Amino acid sequence: MAFYKGRTYVVPDDVKQVAESVLAHRIILNGEARISGLESRQVIADLLNGAMVPVFHHAPGVPS
């Protein structure tokens, strides 16, 4: 996604944007989860929504 947007670095939103499509087929839910109607895409969305995004602050006087 970063490359598509012309960047040489990845930001958290890039990961969030592609994670579901990239990971959904790799999540195998147990029988109980499937019976309850849970889907792998929802598991991934819940994980991403609960993940803390790191924030970096530049030190004063140091160029960014």
Low-confidence stretches: none
Taken in chain order, the helices and strands follow as HHH
Number of H/I helices: 3
Q: How widely separated are the two ends?
A: 23 Å
Largest sheet: none
From the helix content, strand content and strand pairing, which structural class follows?
A: mainly alpha
Please give the number of β-strands: 0
Determine Rg (CA atoms, Å).
17 Å
On the 0 to 100 scale, the average pLDDT is 87
How much helical structure, as a percent, in the residues? 40-55%
Shape: elongated
Q: How much of the polypeptide forms β-strand, as a percent range?
A: under 5%
What can you tell me about this protein's structure?
This protein has helices at 12-23, 31-35, 40-50. The protein has 64 residues and is mostly helical. The protein has a domain at 12-50. 0% of the residues are buried.
How is this fold's topology laid out?
Blueprint: H1 12-23, H2 31-35, H3 40-50
Helix pairs in contact: 1-3
Primary descriptors:
64 residues, mainly alpha, 3 helices, 0% strand
Compact overview of the structure:
By secondary structure, this protein is mostly helical.
